Amino acid sequence: MSSLSADLALEIDRHGKESLGHQVRRGLLAHIRAGILRPGVVLPSTRALAAQLGISRPLIVDAYAQLAAEGFLIVRRGARPIVASGAARVAPPLEEKLEQPIRYDLRPAMPDVGLFPRKAWASAIRTVLNAVPANDLGYGDLRGSPRLRSALADYLGRVRGVVADPSHIFITSGFAEGRALACVVMRAVGLRRVAVEDPGYSDWVAVDKAGLERVPIPVDEQGIDVDQLIAAGAEGALITPSHQFPIGGVLSAGRRQRLVRWLEQHDGYVLEDDYDAEFRYDQASVGALQGLAADRVIYAGTASKTLAPALRIGWLVVPPELVRPMDAELRRWKEGSPRIEQDALAHLLQTGAYDRHLRKMRRIYRDRRKHLLDCLAAELPELEIEGTAAGLHVTLRLPSELTRADEAQIVSSLRERGLATEGLGRYSLTAEGPRRLFVGYGRVTDSAIASSVRLLAKAVRAAQRHELGP
Ligand SMILES: Cc1ncc(COP(=O)(O)O)c(C=O)c1O
Predict the structure, then answer these.
(1) Which atom of ligand 1 is nearest to the CA of 174?
(2) C-alpha distance across the termini of the chain, in Å
(3) What domains can be seen in the chain, in order of their start residue?
(4) pTM of the full predicted structure?
């Protein structure tokens, strides 16, 4: 309650014609009606407000009493007045989207935030706070904390084969901001047409807003079709080479080489979204594309899958030629990212706690994936599973007779039963062909997996019998 002794923004004109008490009452009323003083807000005591405004206390007592009598305030003896509910006459707040409760969360690419390493994170934050020199609490380097950029350069080189000099790394608010920034910079250096994966990570607003024209290119089990990308006359691309989202293929060695050759010949740029490479279950991850063409690839990573989306920490490793344009662009966007959190992540990386957490999560996700595949094999044995053993979801190819509408009906009927999953329609621009469901296992426990798959199988069978109907 101590913050409630804070001042109240109320202006009084000492030389005006209107009496001071009247001004207080009118000012408060206007603020309440306008919704500036919101229902439930506790106002200063009569003594505090009188002292703040430099007027006599009885005037405040009268003003409060009158507003209470009119129903705008709730006044109780010995307590500060509270703004009554229903007193504001303003437009209702923007309607909040009401989500139906999700019982089984099988949406793709969702990490288990319930297993966020709270202890390690709290201890990292404490260590950083105890050690951070006051000088580091200013705005600092626009590109992000030097400590995190250095820790990432080491980590990305070691784990992903990324060629990363800390001075080429930019810390962003997740991949979302990194992508927006990369698109604007691609446009600024002259690119106009960029290839995007179809189906792909479907939020294309960043591409459109940057003034880039997107060219949808099909993907298969070997990632994006590089020949079609080249033939389409694109000048750059946004891709997920290590684990195509959402189908799940890995860009083949042949396609990688063709893509790199083409990029070098045409001075193109690619944004490599390396969102979940830490989670590969059958063998070591293929190295990042950036390691083959550090001059032509903007590499993007994120802590959203490995730790939690709520951290909003991502990073870009930028080709040397793009460092200056990126820096210039960033200067127009912001003054940096939260420093303490960045250094806490650096601490986890440098002490090995990040690797330990990843090893633990990899084991958990691998077991869940296996359990999910076993259940699917038992309930829907004829359905093909696509994609590499990686990431946080599997791709389920639906029976060939099912249409786009069937797929949408399966998704919505499951959602009505509390099971959230996604279909191909959610991610495709033009992609037709076999229908698919993307079934995440990041957020479901073993027991929930079995029940979820039973629900899923029921929905697929119902669609096959044409029982789902709109
Ligand atoms: C393909 C892909 N890339 C990147 C991200 C991460 O985005 P962000 O770092 O903004 O949370 C996601 C999250 O769902 C994703 O699915």
Answers:
(1) 9
(2) 53
(3) 2-83 (1.10.10.10), 116-355 (3.40.640.10), 360-464 (3.90.1150.10)
(4) 0.89
CA dihedral 51, 54, 57, 62 (to 10 degrees): -120
CA-nearest of 177, 161, 406 to 277 is: 161
Index of the ligand 1 atom closest to the CA of residue 179: 10
Please list the pLDDT of the chain residue by residue as tens digits (470 residues).
Answer: 333 446 888 888 888 888 999 999 999 999 999 888 999 999 999 999 999 999 999 999 999 999 999 999 999 988 999 999 876 665 666 665 556 689 999 999 899 999 999 999 999 999 999 999 999 999 999 999 999 999 999 999 999 999 999 999 999 999 999 999 999 999 999 999 999 999 999 678 899 999 999 999 999 999 999 999 999 999 999 999 999 999 999 999 999 999 999 999 999 999 999 999 999 998 888 899 999 999 999 999 999 999 999 999 999 999 999 999 999 999 999 888 999 999 999 999 999 999 999 999 999 999 999 999 999 999 999 999 999 999 999 999 999 999 999 999 999 999 999 999 999 999 998 867 889 999 999 999 888 999 999 999 999 999 999 887 66
Site residues for ligand 1, CB cut-off 6 Å: 109, 174-176, 201, 240, 245, 273, 275, 302, 304, 309, 314
How many CB atoms within 10 Å of residue 283?
9
Q: Which residue has the tokens 């829907």?
A: 380
Ligand 1 centroid vs 275 CA: distance in angstroms? 6
